[in-house]
Recover the amino acids of this structure.
């Protein structure tokens, strides 16, 4: 039992850091440019597809990972330069619609290029297998390394924002665009870079999730909506909120999926019924969590300081 | 001609055109036109409902498909219990009567909208967008889990709901029934927009702190608008379920919410008939583009982006400009 | 004369800055009380706290016999506070008249009316037109705000506030940015309201202040350094040094 709990906790952490990579980009882009980007999930999908294709063709993850990052980052910057840039002064409605149009386009384009069949990619050979964290408790090395990469990126992001000149500009840009302009900084370039950074993070999340899920059209939106839950729970515009929100949502979601079937089978005798119901209820869990947070802390658990 | 006269003429022309749809379809030898027009009217009701909060009230709800779908499911579930004559929860008898299932759908979606709205309206801006989207997604998963009513396969409604002795199976009859509901709906919607409540809603959209400064706390008015809007979408959902004789979680999918928003913007947010134009445009586009290419989203996506970037005011805005130029 | 507004020990800090510093202020029923002070003295900050835009850190505000602390803005308006803004807050898509319709319906307290058309309802229209006429905007009723001049917007804000029949009107620089004749008109308008409504007037135009104010409070760095009649303030040496810039006199 405790072994199962531990395993679920780690799985939750793994989902949590993945969600964090998406939420961090989303909230960074919102915090600095004031823009809501629905197509953030598409960048995640693009990263996943590019890496999966390269891995399939070359069999090399050393090529696949940079390819995924490159594709996501380039797509992100392109989107920023062609579309987003014109939306900074618009209201959220326009931003939502334009980026919704972008999702439709990206999904259809990927379908056209790769087809509707889900792609399955294997776990990179070096990271396959399991390791005994505690004697007698084997755990997937791959998942463990996702947790490691995710946490390392979180620390890296923290250092980038707190300690570097780019980070200083990012923080200044979030509160006052004019100040940044006055510093003689090309604000357009800064925005493109920030958008590219968000795209890289999303793409990386997609690359990492590829071997765990099937890579398919629509994967971006599924995780995007969950990322929204993270952002609302954590607090819009706050990286710290994105981090804790992601970990909480990841763990709650995984735990519910792990334990709900057992509980339900205890209540309902028909196993198939119980499983279907628990699948539905556990999918709803994080949304109920969000409702609870809204009820008690409408600004989220870790709101950005204004 | 004054502006008002022009609008009256336009409404009369529009009404005559709609009345003549079945005849036109027969004359053109294209009976599918009746179904197309029915769907346009139904989506126009849904889009107009969304327009009340989005266009007039400035609340960007990205979850209105939830109300559409729940409205549809109320019809489906009530019919299911009617067919197997086993009461829901052991007490609520099923029904196949349109005048029972429609009010039930409107009532249930109203209650649902009150719950979702009460929570979501505690926030605004992007959070509101994300939250409405998330709640709709939650309900989507709920109906997938609801295996009793088909889960992700959906629920077939064997017969359209009955209304008096009308032959509802006939698409032309059903079209006129929907037209009746649409006309009534638009009449009420136009009245509400011109009322004190509508005036206040417009003010709330523009500046809530100005509204607070005249002594009005916006929250409950926003909530009321959200509830009315949810009820309208529920009505549309109930009609849609009847039309296609089928409900499934797809009706609650987030892309449906996106489509409803698209209709509002395409037609002209915050205008009376914009949603009707938007629904007509999008549904015709969908119908004809899918005949032409399966990849129509490849065209629709960029078109949407271009519309957002360059065409403000939608179709209603264009018509308005044209009329102005005529004078 | 009874005291309508009583501010005691009010403190507001923005980070390290003390924007309101243990302020005491009394506004008596029926008077025009001016609140003056150099730029950044904290006048708008006081108004904002009175109106409920943000909560003070310390102190109490009593209005018409009851504390306002903790009440949101709409509740304060319902108790009889009205306000105009230093930077006008109007609705860009509305005409002047529509603003007044909104104010009148707010005052009547009937906003949950879904059926009767608002824009042709005589119960809204006649008080709305009356209020517009009061500020001389009757002939601008159907003009959208975006097409109104700066001065007309200021007048419109005043008309909106008046339509709510407030007991106390908080006026944040009603003459700012007005030309000479417009200023004169505004002074005349406010003069005509004397006795009808109590006013707390924030204003930089000293001629207007001295023409209108029964009493004046001088604010410097968030502190009230003097309070008294026009004559007393004009004669006060501290005020001259701190504010009127006549230290050499
Ligand atoms: N929301 C705020 N956050 C931080 N500081 C603020 C805020 N509002 C006002 N201040 C500061 O408080 C001080 C007082 O500002 P306030 O606007 O009240 O001055 P004022 O007397 O109305 O000036 P003016 O005559 O220019 O209108 C200023 O230093 C201002 O920068
Ligand atoms: Mg000021």
């Amino acid at each position: 039992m405790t072994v199962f709990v531990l395993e679920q906790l780690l799985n939750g952490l793994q989902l949590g850091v993945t969600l964090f990579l998406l939420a961090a980009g989303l909230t960074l882009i919102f915090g600095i440019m004031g823009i809501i980007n629905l197509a953030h999930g598409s960048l995640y999908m693009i990263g996943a597809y590019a890496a999966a294709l390269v891995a399939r063709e070359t069999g090399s993850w050393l090529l696949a990972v940079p390819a995924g990052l490159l594709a996501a980052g380039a797509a992100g910057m392109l989107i920023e330069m062609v579309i987003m840039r014109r939306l900074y002064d618009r209201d959220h409605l326009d931003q939502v619609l334009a980026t919704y149009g972008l999702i439709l386009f990206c999904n259809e384009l990927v379908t056209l290029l790769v087809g509707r069949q889900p792609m399955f990619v294997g776990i990179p050979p070096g990271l396959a297998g399991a390791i005994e964290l505690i004697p007698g408790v084997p755990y997937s090395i791959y998942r463990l390394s996702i947790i490691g990469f995710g946490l390392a990126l979180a620390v890296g992001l923290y250092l980038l924002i707190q300690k570097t000149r780019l980070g200083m500009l990012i923080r200044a840009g979030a509160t006052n665009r004019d100040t940044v302009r006055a510093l003689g900084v090309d604000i357009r370039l800064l925005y493109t870079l920030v958008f590219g950074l968000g795209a890289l993070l999303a793409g990386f999340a997609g690359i990492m999730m590829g071997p765990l899920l099937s890579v398919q059209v629509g994967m971006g939106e599924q995780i995007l909506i969950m990322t929204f839950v993270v952002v609302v729970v954590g607090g819009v515009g706050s990286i710290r909120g994105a981090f804790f929100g992601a970990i909480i949502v990841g763990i709650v979601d995984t735990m519910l999926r792990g334990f709900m079937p057992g509980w339900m089978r205890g209540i309902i005798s028909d196993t198939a019924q119980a499983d279907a119901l628990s699948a539905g209820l556990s999918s709803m869990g994080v949304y109920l969590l969000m409702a609870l947070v809204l009820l008690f802390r409408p600004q989220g658990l870790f709101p950005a300081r204004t | 001609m004054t502006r008002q006269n022009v609008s009256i003429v336009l409404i009369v022309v529009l009404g005559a055109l709609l009345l003549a749809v079945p005849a036109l379809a027969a004359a053109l030898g294209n009976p599918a036109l009746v179904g197309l027009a029915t769907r346009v009217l139904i989506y126009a009701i849904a889009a107009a409902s969304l327009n009340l909060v989005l266009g007039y009230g400035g609340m960007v709800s990205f979850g209105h498909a939830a109300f559409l779908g729940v409205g549809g499911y109320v019809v489906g579930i009530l019919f299911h219990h009617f067919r197997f004559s086993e009461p829901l929860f052991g007490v609520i008898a099923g029904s196949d009567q349109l005048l029972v299932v429609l009010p039930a759908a409107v009532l249930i979606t109203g209650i649902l909208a009150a719950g979702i709205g009460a929570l979501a309206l505690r926030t605004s801006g992007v959070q509101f967008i994300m939250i409405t989207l998330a709640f709709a997604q939650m309900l989507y998963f709920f109906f997938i889990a609801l295996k009793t009513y088909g889960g992700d396969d959906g629920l077939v409604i064997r017969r359209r709901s009955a209304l008096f002795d009308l032959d509802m199976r006939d698409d032309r009859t059903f079209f006129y029934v929907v037209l009746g509901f649409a006309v009534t709906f638009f009449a009420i919607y136009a009245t509400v927009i011109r009322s004190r409540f509508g005036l206040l809603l417009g003010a709330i959209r523009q500046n809530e702190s100005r509204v607070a400064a005249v002594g009005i706390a916006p929250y409950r008015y926003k909530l009321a608008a959200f509830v009315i809007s949810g009820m309208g979408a529920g009505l549309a959902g109930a009609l849609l379920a009847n039309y296609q004789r089928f409900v499934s979680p797809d009706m609650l999918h987030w892309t449906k919410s996106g489509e409803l928003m698209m209709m509002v913007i395409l037609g002209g947010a915050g205008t009376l008939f914009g949603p009707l134009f938007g629904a007509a445009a999008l549904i015709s586009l969908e119908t004809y583009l899918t005949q032409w290419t399966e990849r129509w989203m490849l065209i629709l996506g960029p078109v949407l982006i271009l519309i957002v970037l360059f065409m403000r005011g939608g179709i209603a805005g264009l018509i308005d400009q044209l009329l102005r130029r005529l004078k | 004369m009874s005291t309508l507004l009583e501010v005691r020990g009010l403190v507001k800090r923005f980070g390290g800055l003390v924007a309101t510093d243990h302020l005491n202020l009394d506004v008596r029923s029926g008077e025009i009380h001016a609140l003056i002070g150099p730029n950044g003295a904290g006048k708008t900050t006081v108004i904002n706290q009175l109106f409920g835009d943000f909560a003070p850190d310390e102190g109490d505000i009593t209005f018409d016999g009851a504390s306002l602390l903790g009440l949101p803005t709409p509740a304060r308006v319902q108790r009889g506070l009205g306000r105009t803004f230093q930077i006008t807050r109007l609705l860009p898509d509305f005409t002047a008249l529509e603003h007044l319709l909104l104010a009148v319906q707010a005052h009547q307290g009937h906003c949950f009316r879904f059926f009767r058309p608002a824009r042709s309802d005589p119960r809204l229209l006649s008080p709305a037109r009356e209020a517009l006429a009061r500020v001389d905007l009757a002939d601008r009723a159907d003009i959208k705000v975006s097409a109104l001049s700066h001065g007309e917007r200021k007048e419109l804000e005043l008309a909106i506030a008046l339509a709510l029949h407030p007991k106390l009107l908080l006026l944040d620089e009603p003459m700012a940015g007005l030309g000479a004749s417009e200023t004169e008109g505004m002074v005349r308008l406010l003069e005509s309201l004397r006795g009808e409504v109590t006013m707390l007037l924030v204003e930089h135009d000293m001629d207007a202040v001295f023409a209108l104010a029964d009493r004046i409070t001088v604010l410097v760095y968030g502190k009230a350094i003097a309070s008294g009649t026009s004559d007393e303030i004009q004669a006060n040496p501290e005020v001259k040094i701190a504010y009127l810039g006549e230290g050499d006199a």
